[in-house]
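Example complex used in Figure S2.
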Amino acid sequence: MASYRSPDFGTPALAESNSTIMVSVEIDGQKVTVPAGTSVMRAAMTLGTKVPKLCATDSVEAFGSCRLCLVEIEGRRGYPASCTTPVENGMKVKTSSPKLGELRRGVMELYISDHPLDCLTCGANGDCELQDMAGAVGLREVRYGYEGANHFDSVKDTSNPYFTFDPAKCIVCSRCVRACEEVQGTFALTIDGRGFASVVSPGQNQDFIDSECVSCGACVQACPTATLIEKSVLELGQAEHKVTTTCAYCGVGCSFDAEMQGSTVVRMTPSKEGKANHGHSCVKGRFAWGYATHPDRITKPMVRQRITDPWREVSWEEAIKTVATKFKNIQAEHGTDAIGGITSSRCTNEESYLVQKMIRAGFGNNNVDTCARVCHSPTGYGLRATLGTSAGTQDFDSVDHTDLVLLIGANPTDAHPVFASRMKKRLRAGAKLIVIDPRKIDLVDSAHVKAEHHLALRPGTNVAMINALAHTILTEGLWDEKSVHERCDAADFAYWSDFIRDERNSAEAAATVTGVPAESIRAAARLFAAAPNGSIYYGLGVTEHSQGTTMVMGMANLAMLTGNFGRKGVGINPLRGQNNVQGACDMGSFPHEFSGYRHVSDAATRFDFESLWGVPLSGEPGLRIPNMFDAALAGTFKGMYVQGEDIAQSDPNTQHVVAALKSLDCLVVQDIFMNETAAYAHVFLPGASFLEKDGTFTNAERRISRVRRAMPPLAGYADWEVTMMLSNALGYQMNYSHPSEIMDEIARMTPTFSGVSYARLDELGSVQWPCNDAAPMGTPTMHIDHFVRGKGRFMITDYVPTDEKTTAKFPLLLTTGRILSQYNVGAQTRRTDNVVWHDEDRLEIHAFDAESRGINDGDTVALQSRAGEVALRAKISERMQPGVVYTTFHFAETGANVVTTEYSDWATNCPEYKVTAVQVRPTNQKSSFQLDYELETSIGRKVAAE
Amino acid sequence: MTNDKQTHNNLPNLLRMIEQITGYFKSYPQDYAVDHIADHIQKFWEPRMRREILEHAAAGGEGLSELAKLAVKKVRV
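Predicted assembly (1023 residues):
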């Protein structure tokens, strides 16, 4: 095993709740005290004693098959396996003796007798546990010879783009099979055959690529030999050092070890110490990191006078000077408020903080926003109004304690796969599941997981559904009266109680709106109310509606009504989309708030920032992203700095967005790739990937984790350095030498971060805010004794149907989302081998809707709304209910957001991506938008010859 | 692709936004609703947007509900 690898304790640590009684044992003469139930193997390892093993690893339960970890226990006959033998008080164990050595060598002889002896040229050379064990037991000969039966003629499976499966090297330890079951929960692998013919088999004797395998990498991680091994390791060899950092894909925020050869990534392996992922990963974080060094990376700054001109590569100095000059000229001509910018949820906390600081202090206005505008801004508003804090209430570990998961508008197996595995593990252990979603997502019915209720409501009717659940619980007397009276505002509750008891909020009334039978709604409500620990997990299927904020408040109402706050296993948990969308919000990226969610009109807060930053600050809210577009089209907003977002692809009503971008006098895009937005830019500043910089990300559970530089920035500067150069050129001086200094300023200025520093993060690994004097170790569970706002506030949540309605012209409802292998606008994942699984956006449609339109699976169809039209291929899917279609938005050439509309949430302007009235018809050609798009972007991306 | 720069009129958008906000708060007693609609606009609408809706209200406020009109009276730029 590589020296930088974390130690393997052989068997998992006991669950916290099962580890209260401690026992003392003696191992090789040393005493050790461990929780009762701990394996002898693990107890030995806590002393640093590595008992030889092959089938055991601490990511899966003990199996006891390899017989290599035998030990002697005083007073016991035979040689028990240390992995399956629990410690007992007073037990005396010997892990080595002449007899044990003899037995282990005998076992190893059998393993080696049919194993290829190509160690020097094997991909696992230097990182092979079989090799290590041969050394550990002192194997010097194989008495059986090497001429017996073996599996050398097995066909190597290279079908997966990221790893190979070589049955010839398999020792049938079942670690991969168990990892697939226990860690990932997919059950894609099995042991096929009996005796010597036993082989690991994906699916039904299929290749990996054709099986149910989701390429999470758990099997590869668990494999002790070269049977399952990364193709990158086969190509490059073993790494020589590692850099622990945080994944830059979804909001789970998995900790990874970037295993390096110099500045070259050999592979990314999930860190066992990572508190968000506990050693697990998904196909994106584990394997889809090659985009970081993709040839498409732009590494030189570029400028152009007009967006129809070819790009001209220039020095950093010229590019920065160009931006500063143009922005100053715009402000001189059109006023201070004529420019603004967007912080990136892909960038670090420190970088978001700097961009909003530059805008507030350097631009002199509050025209700053972030992509949370188009995803979880309703979460911030709704949870703050009801509970007092704009964030989720739990840590991910909390799901281990839940008795019932109410999953609303989220598809975690695709969008938050590592947390989904954790959730599935709890569900397999007996927790119940209720799914509220228009689509039949995987969790509704998959291997060893089946939802008790799938409330397949019509898109846009969430609020009617949540009200009906609350109505049922209240009117049937199933609510937690004690908790409500102790923890919630009595007057607000009384007012809400009268509202929610009204017949219009009954299950029967909701049934007519949602399309879900009343009895199913009532049964689900009763089940939720009866759960000792009921938890709510939700995603963008909640927020991206005209009533997104109302729904968030409705969920908070439901959790308060049932007393599901302030302990493990409960709470309200947003599954946030991007790696640092929580952090971008925390850092003051919204136009109305400083870091820590303090309104810009608050004079005391503004005074603090003015004192530190040395300039007067505006107390007026700035423009939100959609307001910026409108102001641009109205001619009052002329300059925009966009860091790490692709608004031309991600934001709704693409044609409206593009028109706004085209109307700007100066659009500055900072990104690692020439994205869709850059086609309309005047200045391009090369960005740095997460592997190229230091900083922190904050995940969906408020966990702040370090991002560490593994390689130098390809363009020479990290993003925070570029923002600093830009600010200085504009005349507002910044002088940080390292992101840790930015975090120190954040901590100084943000009460919930006051205890955060790089030293503290290095000490704890990660920490959940609030982290301050009151909670120096962070806050895994919020609202323990009381809500942050004091008394919890029940808010009225009247169901208001969206203005986006089906008509004879547009009779179907479109909803959009993600798929496992691709990520958001696809800028990263499209530049990896993940395209093997998903190389185009498809329109999922129910068989009835397809047949009535003469559409067959795979046909090209036109998808049209009042906003626009695109063409894409149809996929007939049982996931869909009649009347509802679905697509992803990963491919710019498809242009899914050409179809989505400008309608948005009432409180936050979060777009209503999840409800668009559309028509679908067969076609044999691209839409006019798609044809124009090809032409425009080819012009917009052209770089002048040197 | 279209370029609606020349024809862009943001007022319908602002009217829809304010009526959506009103649609939420109208479930509360009128005084509370008026105060909170106005407060929401004051806290979240950039001055250009507030100015435009105030000018529209001053010109008769066509398209504004009565509740929204009462709230706009409390909005300041």
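Residues 291 and 831 of chain A are 5 Å apart (CA to CA). The mean pLDDT of chain A is 96.
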